[in-house]
Amino acid sequence: MGKGLDLFQQSAVGFTRQISPWDTMVYSTVNPGLMYALVYLMWAPFLYPGAHMGWAIITVSQMFIIAGLYWLLSCAMPRQGGEYIYISRILHPALGLMASFMISFTAISWTGVCADWAIKYAIVEFFASLGIVTGGQNWFAIAETLNQPGVRALIGTAMIIIIWMVYYRGSKAMMKMSWMALIGTAIGALTYIVANLIADPGQFAANFTQLTGMNYDDVIKIAAEAGHPTKFLFGATVMAGSTYIILNTLGATFGANLAGEVRNVQKSQLLAMFGSLAILMSAWAIFYGFSYKSFGSMWTNCLMFLSGTGNAAYPWGSYEPFATILIGVLTLSPIFIFLIAMAFFMATYGSCAGMSFGPTRNIYAWGFDRLVPEKVAEINPKNGAPMVASTIALIAAEIFLLMDCFAPEWTAYIGYTIFTWFLAWILLGVSGIVFPYRRKVLFESSPPIVRKRFLGVPVITILGVLTTIISVSICGYLLIPFIQGQIPNTMIIMSAVLMILPVIIYYLSKASYSKKGIDIDIQFQEIPAD
Amino acid sequence: MKIFYAADIHAAETTFRKFTNAGPFYKADLVIYGGDFCGKMVVPIINKGNNRYEATYYGSTVVLKGDSEIPDLKKTLRDAGFYFTDLTEAELNKITKEDVERITKEEQMKRLSEWVELMDQRFAKNKIPCIVTPGNDDPLYIDEALEKLSYVKNGDGKVIEVNGFEVLSLSYAHPTIFKFPRDISEEELAAKIDALAAQVKDMKKCIFNLHIPPYDTDLDQDTLYDEDLNPILDGDALASGATGSKAVRAAIEKYQPMLSLHGHVHNSRGVTVIGKTVCINPGSEYDQALLKGALIEVSAGGQIVKHLLTAG
Asked: What is the predicted pLDDT for the residue at A261?
């Protein structure tokens, strides 16, 4: 029977294959970036005291459900564009624009904020770590100078201008940036593993006491007196994992957009998406496992808590307890400090460029559909790239960089990015729920796997319900530190702006085109078949 | 005059039915179809015995547990642009390449004949002129079915006048990686366009309806494939590049018609301007029951007043 079916397949005209599972897995794994796990190791235990970051990795399993929904929607509507296409087509173009705008500008904001992280945690903390380890005040002076908001803004602006030039040169140059991020991540992981293997926890405790003058054991005592729990808590672990660890897995859904010409279902494609999640979970297990082993699990959380709450006992002042400092204290080696700093810079800067690259294509698509002014869909004749859209994205990234430097309360713990992203995914979940009913013809003509049912209910509807529940829960988890005052109300304001702005833009655009006699809604109205 | 244009429906039933209704829906005065009527594959529905059937498409095998489920499957396949044939397992095991080619031809001709009838009926009823052409995916033998059109005109290789405007249509393409039935050399393609252009009275009021888009424009950017038709990755996106025809681009640059309409590259939906000519590719998502098209309003003097890409 196989031979007969093959003959029918071979006589098919113009069918193309799909992206290989390997390519999809690499693509999904490198976005947004593995090394950010080291930043979230500082923040999550402070915002969710009692969270065990090792066990928190298990909460990533929620992403399997969301990745599954993306996979089925991409089988039904395989063109590039992701949630913009799905939500526009299933719910309404204005809602599609809203979700796409929220996700795109969240990613763009990371370009600006993470450029500042590359400066703060790689460059500034490199010099601060040298100062801590060697006792040389000159190193602190350099770190202090570089840590000035104006200096960081200048360096960050130069970094964003270079990213603009990379976009101008096209996707080949972008590929080099992606490789830089990947190599940086590999160097960082290797350095972290070697540093933790050659030093023992006793050495870290002794070095810490000697370098800071604060007894290693006092960290837990002082944190406990300040209200930190003395044992790990299940709820805090779930919430920390569901917010900050999941934040690093959002790229696992990007692979769903790499579909071919035909809605061919590749189970290996799904496996690649799940495989990337498994790789990410393994990488965090290394980072968090070694951190807890070398520094002490509860001790690490307590130090992060003291730093986050601005406790007077925290020994390093305005320098956050990032890996550069902790590895320096562990090894007392400037070489390890340099390697971690360099790796974090390469990984962060490489991913900074990548995080706005995709959204520039989304901005182009909105302009193309006239949901925003058409000008943004202009293609540069010299390089064939949407440079107006790229420039808009990088101007927005620059604004977020300046906010992170001069008004950090607006980007605090990047809480708004998680909140905004999952608000957008609520719309995605609702799209999944209603897809079989609102777009019956498209659903019925979808590949069989999309039309599978469980107890009579379409599987895609079930995944939509679960995605909605997960997204609502994660937004709820972020409201807890917000209510407790650890995350400022700027998180809500920022998310609200990112949510409302696209709707205003849509209706302004609609009114503007209407004056020219063009009804932009007609382009989405369905023609009757009979 | 308001013109509606679409292309690349590739045997998808609901999308085609939407096309036949697009004229009155968009209040168009002229409807043009830019090629590629035929679907890409026949799906055998295999009778496995004991009232069980199997069909494999989109990389999945679907099992039917009774005759009653077959009509639904056939509708699904039609809407997605597939043909189908009923076979027993024994027949499938004995099938030859020649049999598959014969079945494919029969199914293509059968569906297109139904469509020819439907097109004529609906456009005549609405009194909206319609000009169609095949595309390079379409085997040459389908011209026989298109010859039966009466109200709707098969414009392939002709210049047809409608309301004072001339429509020059051509189905052929340059050599593509897929080696389609109407792929010819760039030189031959240029010669065919030149021969037709010589018949045009006024290029300022002429519409080119050429299936293949002009080379290296917003209309011909497509995913690049290796020789085994696997897509190539470039950085963090699918590698894409120009896939259009240099002969088509040269013809537009040389003759400067009022409007040039194209299809073929489904993912390169766009509008571009070459010299004074507005060029459009509406793209296609035929298998999702979605008719992508372009609505263009032109003045009596041959000026493009406005244009809008649609997704109905």
From this structure: 45
**A138 membership: H or E segment, kind and range:** helix A137-146
The size of the A-B interface in CB pairs under 8 A is 187
Q: Which residue of A has its CA nearest to B88?
A: A1
Is A8 close to B43, i.e. CB distance below 8 A? yes
> Between residues 83 and 122 of chain B, which touch chain A (CB distance below 8 Å)?
87, 89, 92-97, 100-101, 104
Phi/psi for A156 (5° steps) reads -60, -40
Per the rule left: phi > 0, alpha: psi between -120 and 50, beta: everything else, A380 is beta
HSE-CB at A297 with a 13 A cutoff on CA atoms is 16
Gap between the Cα atoms of B210 and B7, Å rounded: 10
Give me the interface pTM, i.e. the ipTM: 0.90
pLDDT digits (tens, 9 = 90+) for A293-312: 999 999 999 999 999 999 99
Tens-digit pLDDT profile for residues A228-262: 999 999 999 999 999 988 888 877 676 665 554 44
* Contact check, Cβ <8 Å, A17/B290: no
Tell me the C-alpha distance between A125 and A119, whole Å: 8
Q: Find residue A53's DSSP bridge partners.
A: none
Tell me the Cα Rg of chain A: 24
CB contact under 8 A, B58 and A528: no
Average pLDDT over residues A355-362: 81
Report, as an integer, the average pLDDT of B179-198. 96
- Cβ distance of B310 and A523 shorter than 8 Å: yes
Average pLDDT score, chain A: 87
pTM for the whole structure: 0.80
Encoding tokens for residue B7? 């292309």
**Mean pLDDT for all residues in chain B:** 93
B151 touches A at CB < 8 Å: no
CB pair distance less than 8 Å for A1 and B97 = no
**CA-CA distance, A189 to B239, in Å (whole number)?**
30
- A-chain CB neighbours of B94 within 8 Å are 4
